Amino acid sequence: MILVTGGAGFIGANFVLDWLAASDEPVLNLDALTYAGNLENLARLQGDARHVFVHGDICDRALVDRLLAEYRPRAIVHFAAESHVDRSIHGPAAFVRTNVEGSFTLLEAARAYWSALEGEAREGFRFLHVSTDEVYGSLGPADPPFAETKAYEPNSPYSASKAASDHLVRAWHHTYGLPVLTTNCSNNYGPCQFPEKLIPLVIANALAGRPLPIYGDGMNVRDWLYVGDHCAAVREVLASGRPGETYNVGGWNEMPNIEIVRTICALLDELRPDPAGAHERLITFVADRPGHDRRYAIDARKIERELGWRPAETFATGIRRTVAWYLDHQDWVAHVQSGAYRDWIAANYAGRGAGA
């Protein structure tokens, strides 16, 4: 069995579903079910004995200790995190608590558990920490992509909290010998992503005929990674990665935000045309967010060279699959767009020059 934290969230749920589609090894899934955690993401696993869900907080040391003692997992795959930059600007405390204190709690529980293991169980145990490319800071137009050796320069409360957790993971390996692995991924997209992030927000707003808010000039560049490819990379790192190592996971898809939005609009024009006109008419430029990093890009050659992983999806294929999924799952979107979510969107975009 493996323990997955945050396995009801966007990436975590996709990972759990992919894991159980490819393997009969059970998953113990620990998730606090905050606003972005959604058991509907895992609906197809209802009644599946291979999936054990526990509603709980990674900051609860007693709970984590009990789960490790009871289920004896061979690995921990740590996805649980607060992950939205805008939310971190409005309320950084939650990011420090979950991303820093929660990771510390998990590391200490894992260290105690691993230290008591013997033989092959101790030798084979792994703690895999899933992080982000945002810890590396921002790139200029001509700068090389982020390699694993790039110095950390986090610029938002979110990325600073993730950088802190990365450093804790590294320290627990070098100080205590805990067999850790770290992945730093680029921007994920795909099914079940909470509609505060760019791609699902644009799809939801476009279908509703609402403005498509674009920060600044829309030329902030990101590398885009289809979530299924990310899940495959995490599985490969868990299986074959070298303890203590970091692996950058990227999609080799650098694109400015405005191009992403126009691509989505074109797909919606094809798949769900609006009688009122082309969806691009809804694009609205709004005031930029504070400290907005200009460009991220991932150099994913190490994971390809050492572990043989490379993304299977191009952006063209991945974004078409993603738009189609949201069109086919409008009930899911309606359920997650609660009153609390609508209040958040209104607060975040208030004064920026666009409604939501």
TrEMBL record:
Catalytic activity as recorded in UniProt: dTDP-alpha-D-glucose = dTDP-4-dehydro-6-deoxy-alpha-D-glucose + H2O
Family annotation (PANTHER family): DTDP-D-GLUCOSE 4,6-DEHYDRATASE-RELATED
Any one GO BP annotation for this protein: nucleotide-sugar metabolic process
Protein name (Swiss-Prot/TrEMBL): dTDP-glucose 4,6-dehydratase
CDD domains: dTDP_GD_SDR_e
Keyword annotations: Lyase, NAD
Enzyme superclass (EC): lyase
Cofactor dependency: NAD(+)
EC number(s) per entry: 4.2.1.46
Entry similarity comment: Belongs to the NAD(P)-dependent epimerase/dehydratase family. dTDP-glucose dehydratase subfamily.
Stretches assigned to the NAD(P)-binding domain: 3-322
Highest taxon in the source lineage: Bacteria
Species this chain originates from: Pseudothauera rhizosphaerae
